[in-house]
Amino acid sequence: MKIVRISVFGLTLPLQRPYELQGGRLRFEQLESTLVRLDTDEGVSGWGEACPWGSTYLPAFPRGIRAGLEELAPGLLGQDPRRTDVVNTVMDTALPGHPYVKSAIDIACWDILGKATGLPVCDLLGGRRPGDVTIQSSIPTDDPPEMLRTIERYHARGYTIHSAKVGSGVAADIERIEYLAERMPAGSSLTIDANRAWIPDQAIRVMRATEAVDAYFEQPCETYEECLQVRRSTRQPILLDEIIHTYGDLVRAHHDQACEGIGLKPNRVGGLTKARRIRDFCVQVGLRLNIEDTGGTALADTAAVHLAQATPARYRRGTWFCHEMINVDPIIGGARNLGGVTRAPGTPGLGAEPDPATLGDPMLVIG
User: Is 274 annotated in the active site?
Assistant: First the structure.
């Protein structure tokens, strides 16, 4: 089997409401997603998606994906998409770095591999684990009562894990955390996500002032060194997210005892092939995982759910659904909210494909 054509499509995904991070410093109203279809000489096609959270959240941006795909695509023609490690070596040789560019290609290869073998992708990533995957909400920065109302709306739909975005300053964040913690719906779990907004002294002061709160604290500071300083000065469990890009980043964090878990986003690390390796290390050493993607439609969310479904339940914390926060739904099938939980589709491949009527013409075709 060989790749004979690569088609690239662009989609604008308007958010249902403006979304603010880092205490309001970053604001988003829509996302730009890139979908990729790989066609093979045996008539099997696969789909993948890459969608940065705008251009200001990570060192990744939508037009960078499209330019990178144009660079990569010629060297991928003739490759066997079922040989995912080989395909990744080809991409890493042709374009060092830029993992977010490669993720859609990699995910499309896994989709093809599943269809070619008659297996859902989760069975190829280690095997479907029993039980459902828990979905977590994502609560944008706002005044505490409005954030609580948003949590209560998610709770009414079955959500039990809530990730509250902070970063407004020490006093405001302490007030916000204490307000939410005192009023959380019964049976709920709270994550406090600074998205790198704090400098170490702020993170340490906030976390020491809220030591009685049962919560995870996610990505307190911008750099690894800053987060490590916070880890060594505080007691609550820390999740590292935006600074975990490679397997080496994770090995370093484990060696330094810098965290108790990570956010694992296939788009950020280069796709399912590299995300699987990171997942396996976390399971081996006992780190918790939020397995989700940076953004996108139900296609990107479904790829992440396949990886989560193949991960032992004791290591999973939550999986966020971006597609529930956008105003369009161009995907047929896929993993969906089933009352606060979800599960990977049981059909071969990802079990999710774009509705052709929503895509329009491709912006790039090679092959």
Answer: no
Closest by CA position to 318, among listed 160, 164, 147: 160
Catalytic residue, candidates 2, 102, 115, 265: 265
Straight-line distance from the first to the last Cα atom of the chain, in angstroms, rounded to the nearest whole number: 15
Q: Where do the CATH 3.30.390.10 domains begin and end in the chain?
A: 3-119+354-366
**CATH number of the domain located at residue range(s) 3-119+354-366 in this protein:** 3.30.390.10
Nearest Cα neighbor of 54 from 42, 62, 43 is: 62
165 in catalytic set: yes
Predicted local confidence at residue 223, as pLDDT: 97
Domain 123-353: give its CATH code: 3.20.20.120
- Residue 325: count of CB within 10 angstroms of its CB: 17
Given this model, what pLDDT does residue 26 score? 80
Range with the lowest mean pLDDT among 48-62, 137-151, 218-232?
A: 48-62
Q: Rounded to an integer, what distance in angstroms lies between the CA atom of residue 154 and that of residue 220?
A: 24
Contacts with 228 (C-beta within 8 Å, 6 or more apart), sequence order: 256, 258
pLDDT tens, 4-19? 999 999 999 999 988 8
From the list 102, 115, 165, 274, the catalytic residue is 165
- Cα separation values, 299 from 22, 39, 43, 199, 212, Å: 27, 17, 21, 35, 39
